[in-house]
Write a structure and sequence with these properties.
Layout lengths: L1 H26 L22 E4 L5 E4 L4 E5 L9 E8 L6 E7 L3 E3 L8 E10 L2 E4 L3 E5 L2 E5 L6 E7 L2 E4 L10 E2 L8 H4 L2 E3 L3 H4 L4 E2 L3 H10 L20 H5 L12 E5 L2 E5 L2 E11 L2 E8 L6 E6 L3 E3 L4 E2 L1
Parallel strand pairs: 2-9
Antiparallel strand pairs: 1-3, 3-6, 4-5, 4-7, 7-8, 7-9, 10-11, 11-12, 13-14, 14-21, 15-22, 16-17, 16-21, 18-19, 19-20
Length: about 325
């Protein structure tokens, strides 16, 4: 009995110690390990392109083709930068004329004369695009055209709604002649053309003006409407349009007194000039214009085309 009494307290003590031990283990809090987080930096937009060489805003008399340049944009993220060039005559809907270029310059094609253009450059880096200011400018009333067939360059000028060459055609086609068969005359006077050869001599994008187109020009230069349809080799017509059209005249078209060829004979250089008009009067007769040195009239008449070679002046399509 004595031994049983001794064992019982020992057993109770062990149970109590075990309970205390378990309680302490449950009180232990494991440390929480936090994983460091990083905040992604927002990608930034490139700086706006700044024009370097370009027409000033609202500039006038700008010649074309036109080369423009701008200062390179920068990007804080180091992204590659490309540029889109926009150009057009409608400010609300510009035309993309060059895309994704890395160069900071651009050369336009020939622009329409006396037209208002709008210009903008967009810089793109990554997913961001920043535009430049939009500039507008007006082109000059004069320019040039180079015939791709022979490389000859012609001056051109806008008068009203029309664009005319400011020199006679010099393309050396079959059925065309140098005055007196001397090619040194060609640069100033142009060549003389058989009527049937004219279609072969005209470059793409240009045409021989009709009688109506001539009358449009003459009206622009101040010819009274009642004179427009006067038809006769020597019938006075207009006020001073004949003078305006000659070399040094106010029109800027500078028609030289190129003479003509009839049969095998060349005549009247530095005295008068004849020009084909793209209107058939019927019966083998074609309208023409005649300009005489020092004469105020711009004569309008018809004559058979056969046997003659005269000058050609062109208007833009």
């Amino acid at each position: 009995m004595k031994n049983k009494k001794t064992i019982l307290p020992l057993t109770l003590g062990c149970i109590l110690l075990a309970a205390i031990s378990c309680s302490k283990e449950e009180d232990v809090v494991e440390p929480v390990v936090e994983t460091p987080t990083t905040t992604a930096l927002a990608n930034t937009a490139p700086t706006a392109p700044v024009f370097n060489v370009a027409p000033a805003n609202l500039a006038t008399g700008i010649s074309s083709p036109l080369t423009i340049s701008w200062l390179a944009s920068t990007d804080a993220d180091g992204d590659a930068i490309t540029y889109n060039v926009y150009l057009g005559t409608n400010s609300s809907s510009l035309t993309l004329v060059s895309s994704s270029q890395s160069s900071i310059n651009y050369t336009t094609a020939d622009l329409d004369l006396m037209s208002t253009y709008y210009l903008r450059i967009d810089a793109t880096a990554g997913s961001h695009t920043t535009p430049s200011e939009t500039r507008n400018f007006e082109t000059s009333d004069v320019g040039s055209f180079t015939d791709p067939r022979d490389g000859h360059q012609y001056g051109i000028k806008k008068l009203g709604t029309q664009v005319w060459m400011t020199a006679n055609l010099v393309y050396n086609s079959t059925g065309s002649y140098s005055y007196d068969n001397n090619a040194s005359y060609d640069v100033v006077y142009g060549r003389l053309y058989d009527w049937l050869d004219v279609p072969n001599a005209v470059p793409a994008g240009w045409h021989l003006p009709t009688d109506t187109e001539w009358q449009t020009l003459e009206t622009y230069l101040g010819m009274p409407s009642g004179d427009l349809n006067i038809n006769g080799y020597s019938l006075s017509r207009g006020t001073d349009q004949g003078i305006q059209l000659q070399l040094g005249g106010g029109s800027g078209l500078n028609f030289p007194l190129a003479g003509y060829k009839s049969g095998s004979t060349f005549s009247a250089i530095n005295n008068r000039t004849y020009l084909w008009v793209n209107t058939d009067a019927g019966g083998g007769n074609i309208f023409r214009r005649r300009i005489v040195g020092g004469d105020a009239s711009c004569y309008r008449f018809t004559n058979p085309y056969a046997g003659y070679a005269i000058s050609v002046r062109l208007v833009k399509d």
